[in-house]
Amino acid sequence: MADQFLAYTKRNDFLVCVDSDGCAMDTMDIKHIRCFGPCMVAEWGLEEWREAILERWNEINLYTMTRGINRFKGLVKALGEIRDKYCEIEELDALEKWVNETPELSNAALERKIVEKDNVCLRKALAWSRAVNQSIDRLPEEDKRPFNGVLEALRRAYRDADIAVVSSANLSAVLDEWDFYGLLEYTDVVLAQDSGSKAFCIGELMKRGYAPDHVLMCGDAPGDLDAAEQNGVYYYPILVRHEVQSWEEFVREGIGHFLDGTYGGAYQQQKKEQFLDNLGKK
Hints:
- A five-stranded parallel sheet has the order 3-2-1-4-5, sandwiched between helices.
- The protein has helices at 2-6, 28-44, 50-63, 71-85, 92-101, 107-116, 120-137, 150-158, 171-180, 198-206, 222-230, 243-260, 266-278; strands at residues 15-18, 162-166, 189-191, 215-219, 234-237.
- It is globular, with a radius of gyration of 19 Å.
- It is an alpha/beta fold.
- The longest helix is centred in the middle third of the chain and has 18 residues, at 120-137.
- Strand 4, helix 11 (222-230) and strand 5 form a beta-alpha-beta unit.
- The protein is built from 13 helices and five strands.
């Protein structure tokens, strides 16, 4: 983790941070619909209620204010609802406790917890997470594409700003996907799951001397907005189901407002309200 920050070189006074899954890459829906949900059904033997459970998984992780939630938090939420509605989930309380208390939500942290205290639900959660990663790796490259307009947006922003990928996804997956479509050429650093939370990553980058009003986070989920607000920086939303239009507006208006100092105030408030309304928060 430290090496990625130490190797980072600031080029400009402006910094644009960009999330990957569901923001730059049209991969969030496909990963949840084909990988995350089905792997949960398989690991816990939930085939009897498969259709309803998968529909609810997608609501939690894609289309409401919990969009983009960490995979283990999403798992605990889904399994809790399954326990209440369909069947018992053995030793779920241990997984809930770990998710609520651990400072690091990752496979490696879960592996350490299992060594410390073995538990059937913790082991199943780790097996599920590994199966998800393997399932994602098997997705055809042509099914993991950037949204239309992303390459143009990155190319435009890169002229006047440093570009950091700030993602909670698996690092190797992010690197593979961005490299395959030529997006890495317009980035300065890639920070993923192993680098820490998005809020932490933005904060570390800001230590290189960026003023808060010279930093913009582009994201598609409430966690991206939270990461921006924790650091006092601007937020540009990529609206679910309107991603292409969002990137077109970024090139047409957003980046200009950011670079000329008119992003704050009315424009930022408008974008935030659009984002919250789009995810159903009244």
